[in-house]
Amino acid sequence: MGARANQRVAENRCDRSRFPLLLARKEFVVKTLLTPEQLSDGVERLAAEIGAYYRDRPLTLIGVLTGSVVMIADLMRRLELPLKIGFVQASSYRGQDTQPGSLAIHADFLPDLHGQDVLVVDDIFDTGRTLSRLVLDIKIFGAASVRSAVLLRKHGRREVGLEPDHVGFEIPNEFVVGYGLDYDNAYRNLPYVAALEASELTPLK
Questions:
Q1: By the 8 A CB rule, do 107 and 114 touch?
Q2: What pLDDT score does 24 carry?
Q3: Is the dihedral of CA 22, 25, 26, 29 positive or negative?
């Protein structure tokens, strides 16, 4: 399950940096969990692990919109494999919600998956309900094999039997933004991953 690519986040948990969150028009003090350098190293490790597993076999990457777009862009450029790319939209959070709700999946941007080796790429493994449902659906579409890769796995939140096959980092049970992850569709462009405090999870103006 990607043990060698798995890196616990401990060294930065007490690092607090101030930065302007311009989309929110105010400043927050946040905990930096992963720096840009750590993220780059983590994606490099994932690419090496995935490349070693598939060797020279053609691979179809399916990114889960919208949180995976930064990760999949970095990951695909590090994979020396014949690649196809597709996307699927699966959402269980809405707006300022921080607890998952009912799951909606839209597969309009999927390529033909029949007979393909597929790797589902997502930003974060939280309860696991989204990834579990996606893996089942893609198998129904006729994929020859379906595996999964996530940048982050949140500690103590899993509600399903599925475990991701490739994991970049373990993180504590906190609400995180940056590197594609959002709060109310903001902060995706931050080059690092940071945790927002509960008091900061208020409607953005």
A1: no
A2: 46
A3: negative
Peptide bond into 35 cis (omega under 30): no
Distances (CA, A) of 52 to 25, 49, 58, 162: 44, 5, 13, 22
Task: Output Rg (C-alpha) for the chain, integer angstroms.
Answer: 17
Tens-place pLDDT, residues 20-53:
444 444 555 568 999 999 999 999 999 999 999 9
Whole-number pLDDT of residue 89: 86
Q: Which one is predicted more confidently, 177 or 205?
A: 177
Mean pLDDT of the chain: 83
CB atoms within 10 A of CB 83: 15
Provide the β-strand partners of residue 8: 170
Q: Is 97 labeled as catalytic in the residue annotation? A: no
Catalytic residue selected from 126, 137, 182, 184: 126
Phi-psi region of 119 (alpha: psi -120 to 50; beta: other; left: phi over 0): beta
Please count the residues of the chain. Answer: 205
Give dist(CA 143, CA 54) in Å, integer: 15
Side chain identity, residue 111: P
